[in-house]
């Protein structure tokens, strides 16, 4: 019998999840019912934030987060090159300009030291960013206190892209709880918990919450207290801005509420599997991911970095693992090297740490239902792949 494929990430769906979604499916509401606000309240509580706005993806949530902060033509938004394209595209949707800050080679997150240097120069050139979007890469929180201090000194907003990091903590506090204006989570199936597609923006600032809520609902409010004109009757709703249909459905929220009950267990299982990898991968010519002393990672990813000598063989190693039915992945192709961004003037060589990391990284499978036997299989296959690479 052929071996089952081991992906790099995978959702964990229980009988309770299935039951919750089926119950929502046969209820009176498939959208705009009671479950979306219930899910929002639970995520707000978990993040220690006053407000949460559900959306149909983190991409949508990032878009409305930028709009709520007033990002528009002529503004600059900075993020990290080591991320999924959505962290940068959200600024372009608002007709702003994007730039990047290179990464720290230990955490692979946006580097606060390089950010400070770039801010100094930007201040001198009168080109300071309106918003900086740090990404908690792989679930490992950025140094949020350092970023927050810089935001006060140079006057920019912070949107935390915590797409990988629900449940992660910075100095014991949930990500999103205190060092930013808005924080965004993704519930895509490979993430720490899922709603199939889905995202959420959390904030402690009421005007930002109101703006984002309006924007995910077509710019329309049904709340009488918010109407700008006198309501002629109960049918009335009012468009106050140009918004979008970025709403989350009741089915997604039902899954989210059910998954959230197991979030701690998911992270615990991820952490156990990380410890297993530390033992199983000992002695290999690779850099293993680690946790800074301020961080509690949600371990969305387990990115290894091959030693320099193996760099030319990364594709061979990737291919060999694929042939062994192991789905490693490369996180991330630096955003500025995408043809679309190169057309905007970026080039290879602009952000060397991100590029060097990209050339040698591989994310090994990591998810709650990954078995110990599968981890042993992955570790042995990686050892073989590396041995072959040395003789190739
Ligand atoms: C860092 C990061 N930001 C944003 C997104 C977008 O998330 P979604 O797929 O929910 O739109 C992703 C998804 O992969 C991501 O990894």
TrEMBL record:
Pfam families: DegT_DnrJ_EryC1
Source organism superkingdom: Bacteria
Gene3D superfamilies linked to this entry: Aspartate Aminotransferase, domain 1 (3.90.1150.10), Type I PLP-dependent aspartate aminotransferase-like (Major domain) (3.40.640.10)
GO molecular function: transaminase activity
Classification via InterPro entries: DegT/StrS_aminotransferase, PseC, PyrdxlP-dep_Trfase, PyrdxlP-dep_Trfase_major, PyrdxlP-dep_Trfase_small
Entry keywords, A to Z: Aminotransferase, Pyridoxal phosphate, Transferase
EC number annotated for this UniProt entry: 2.6.1.92
Cross-referenced SUPFAM superfamilies: PLP-dependent transferases
Enzyme class, spelled out: transferase
Membership in a protein family: Belongs to the DegT/DnrJ/EryC1 family.
Protein name (Swiss-Prot/TrEMBL): UDP-4-amino-4, 6-dideoxy-N-acetyl-beta-L-altrosamine transaminase
Protein species of origin: Rhodanobacter aciditrophus
């Amino acid at each position: 019998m052929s071996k089952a494929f081991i992906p790099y990430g995978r959702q964990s769906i229980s009988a309770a999840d299935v039951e919750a979604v089926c119950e929502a499916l046969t209820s009176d509401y498939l959208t705009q019912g009671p479950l979306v606000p219930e899910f929002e309240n639970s995520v707000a509580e978990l993040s220690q934030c006053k407000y949460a706005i559900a959306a149909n993806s983190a991409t949508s949530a990032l878009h409305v987060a930028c709009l709520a902060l007033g990002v528009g033509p002529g503004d600059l938004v900075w993020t990290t090159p080591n991320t999924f394209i959505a962290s940068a595209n959200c600024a372009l949707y608002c007709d702003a300009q994007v730039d990047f800050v290179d990464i720290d080679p230990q955490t692979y997150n946006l580097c606060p030291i390089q950010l400070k240097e770039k801010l100094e120069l930007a201040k001198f050139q009168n080109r300071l960013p309106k918003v900086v979007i740090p990404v908690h890469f792989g679930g490992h929180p950025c140094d949020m206190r350092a970023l927050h201090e810089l935001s006060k000194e140079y006057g920019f907003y912070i949107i935390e892209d915590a797409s990988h990091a629900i449940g992660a903590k910075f100095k014991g506090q949930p990500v999103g709880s205190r060092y930013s204006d808005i924080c965004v989570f993704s519930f895509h199936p490979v993430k720490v918990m899922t709603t199939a597609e889905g995202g959420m923006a959390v904030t402690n600032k009421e005007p930002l919450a109101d703006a984002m809520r309006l924007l995910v609902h077509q710019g329309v409010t049904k709340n009488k207290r918010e109407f700008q004109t006198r309501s002629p009757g109960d049918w009335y709703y009012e468009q106050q801005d140009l918004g979008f249909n970025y709403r989350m459905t009741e089915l997604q929220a039902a899954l989210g509420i059910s998954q959230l009950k197991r979030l701690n267990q998911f992270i615990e299982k991820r952490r156990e599997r990380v410890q297993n990898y530390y033992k199983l991968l000992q002695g290999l010519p690779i850099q293993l991911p680690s946790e800074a002393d301020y961080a509690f990672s949600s371990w969305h990813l387990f990115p290894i970095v091959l030693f320099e000598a193996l760099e030319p063989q990364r594709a061979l190693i990737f291919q060999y693992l694929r042939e062994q039915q192991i789905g490693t992945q490369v996180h991330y192709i630096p955003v500025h090297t995408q043809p679309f961004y190169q057309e905007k003037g970026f080039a290879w060589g602009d952000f060397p740490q991100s590029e060097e990391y990209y050339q040698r990284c591989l994310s090994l499978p990591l998810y709650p239902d990954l078995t110990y036997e599968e981890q042993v299989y992955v570790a042995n296959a990686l050892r073989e792949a590396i041995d072959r690479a040395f003789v190739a």
